[in-house]
């Protein structure tokens, strides 16, 4: 798409206030990345996965990648400052656009607050946080399977997966209240057939967009 068309689309979005900025939320292995890839084209959204950006930096052996590697391999979160700076660059690189799907970000209250500040600089805001609910037994099974096919270091053992689930409970779960208070939190059943889960997300988004008018 030419830059002029992009600028025009963005201008229309801002004027009509019809951008769609989504957070796909959920525990590790809940399917955020998979579902983001399936819905981004339908709504013309830019998908930003902080995990993917870290992994790209790791394979390119950048300073950021080397720093993140230690945390990721242990199953811990990368420090907030580092993650927020990276997200800021990613976001600014993709503006103008018609909206974002944030996948794996924010994962702490600090990150969520910084995201609001960053978006407000561009007169933007988060519209919806869509959580994929999956039980822990299913998550562990999915992640161990992904570990076998992808070789991802953090998916190799149940111990590491448990550390990630504990990180979620301690640092990420409080965001449910953060977005519920703003009336932006919706959850769907993230178990079962892949296409059924996509349909649940699409129905939720279409209802939201219809109500918004
Ligand atoms: P999953 O959600 O399946 O764990 P991700 O690719 O989203 O996979 O994340 C992998 C790892 O990358 C996390 O365990 C963490 O170490 C790091 N990471 C990703 N996003 C963030 C974030 N927002 N804050 C801190 N660390 C992050």
Summarize the structure.
Helices cover 62% and strands 12% of the residues.
What does this structure look like?
With 213 residues, the protein is an alpha/beta fold. The chain has one domain: P-loop containing nucleotide triphosphate hydrolases (Rossmann fold, 3-Layer(aba) Sandwich), CATH 3.40.50.300. Helices cover 62% and strands 12% of the residues. The chain has a five-stranded parallel sheet with strand order 2-3-1-4-5, sandwiched between helices. It is globular and about 50 Å long. It binds adenosine-5'-diphosphate (ADP). The site of adenosine-5'-diphosphate has 18 residues, from α3 and α4.
Specify the number of helices.
Answer: 10
- CATH H-level superfamily title: P-loop containing nucleotide triphosphate hydrolases
State the helical fraction.
55-70%
The CA-CA distance between the termini, in Å, is 26 Å
Residue share in β-strands: 5-15%
Total strands: the figure is 5
Radius of gyration using CA atoms only: 17 Å
| Mean pLDDT metric | 93
Q: Which regions contain 5 or more consecutive residues with pLDDT less than 50?
A: none
In the CATH scheme, the class would be Alpha Beta
Please list the strands of the largest sheet in the order they lie side by side.
Answer: 2-3-1-4-5
Fold-level CATH name: Rossmann fold
Task: Record the SSE blueprint.
Elements: H1 3-16, E1 20-25, H2 32-43, E2 46-49, H3 50-59, H4 63-74, H5 80-94, E3 99-103, H6 109-121, E4 128-133, H7 136-150, H8 158-172, H9 174-181, E5 185-189, H10 194-212
Parallel strand pairs: 1-3, 1-4, 2-3, 4-5
Helix pairs in contact: 3-4, 5-6, 7-8
């Amino acid at each position: 798409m030419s830059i002029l068309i992009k600028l025009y689309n963005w201008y229309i979005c801002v004027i009509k206030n019809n951008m769609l900025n989504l957070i796909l939320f959920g525990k590790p292995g809940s399917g955020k990345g998979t579902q983001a890839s399936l819905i981004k084209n339908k709504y013309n959204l830019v998908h930003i996965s902080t995990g993917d950006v870290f992994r790209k930096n790791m394979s390119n052996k950048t300073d950021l990648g080397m720093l993140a590697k230690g945390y990721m391999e242990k199953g811990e979160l990368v420090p907030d400052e580092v993650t927020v700076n990276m997200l800021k660059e990613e976001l600014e690189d993709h503006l103008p656009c018609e909206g974002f799907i944030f996948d794996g970000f924010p994962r702490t209250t600090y990150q969520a607050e910084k995201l609001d500040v960053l978006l407000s600089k561009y007169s933007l805001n988060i519209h919806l946080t869509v959580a994929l609910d999956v039980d822990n037994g299913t998550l562990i099974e999915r992640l161990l399977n992904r570990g076998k096919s992808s070789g991802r270091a953090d998916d190799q053992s149940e111990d590491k997966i448990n550390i990630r689930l504990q990180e979620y409970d301690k640092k990420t779960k409080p965001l449910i209240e953060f977005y519920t208070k703003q009336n932006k939190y919706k959850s769907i059943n993230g178990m079962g057939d892949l296409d059924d889960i996509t349909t649940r997300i699409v129905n939720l988004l279409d209802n939201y967009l219809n109500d918004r008018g």
